[in-house]
Design a protein that fits this description.
With 158 residues, the protein is mostly beta strands. It has two helices and twelve strands.
Length: 158
């Protein structure tokens, strides 16, 4: 675990900047601004302790919720109830942005800060693409510690 104190992390081609963490809101929610590279996004996952909602600010996302696809453009609000399998992908040809609201948020506060690559505080620009594959096992382990389960294709979990 890094000793960098930051509000911004990079994971799966998504820059995640905390606007408010669970402890900032009296334990009620966390609010994150997410900037997603074209073709990037979150793989199928579920978490029984946090509801998750998304509000698209720029670009175009495809959400997969319980097996159903939904395209979301600016102004679209997408709600994912606790425990529901979901994923998202930026399907635009440029970075897309959205707000992510997690309630109560403690799961995502801990997961993103443990699984993501710490970035300088306040970073708003996506880092250049890396040729290094993501450390999937590190992400899975952080998920297990924090109540986030990934539904990855066979052969990717170990």
């Amino acid at each position: 675990m890094s000793s960098i104190q930051t509000d911004t992390y990079y994971l799966f081609g998504v820059l995640l900047r905390f606007i408010a963490r669970n402890h900032d809101t009296g334990g009620t929610f966390s609010l994150i601004e997410a900037t997603t590279a074209p073709g990037a996004g979150a793989p199928p996952n579920k978490h029984p302790a946090d509801d998750e909602s998304f509000y698209v600010l720029e670009g175009k996302y495809e959400f997969l919720i319980q097996g159903e696809k939904r395209v979301a453009t600016p102004g679209t609000f997408v709600k994912v109830p606790r425990g529901t399998v979901h994923a998202f992908t930026n399907i635009d040809d440029k970075p897309s942005r959205m707000l992510i609201i997690n309630t109560p948020g403690f799961v995502h506060d801990a997961f993103f800060s443990q699984a993501g690559e710490p970035m300088p505080p306040g970073t708003r620009e996506l880092p250049p693409p890396s040729n290094e594959p993501p450390d999937i096992q590190r992400v899975i382990d952080a998920g297990r510690r924090n109540g986030v389960e990934f539904l990855l294709p066979k052969g990717m979990s170990h």
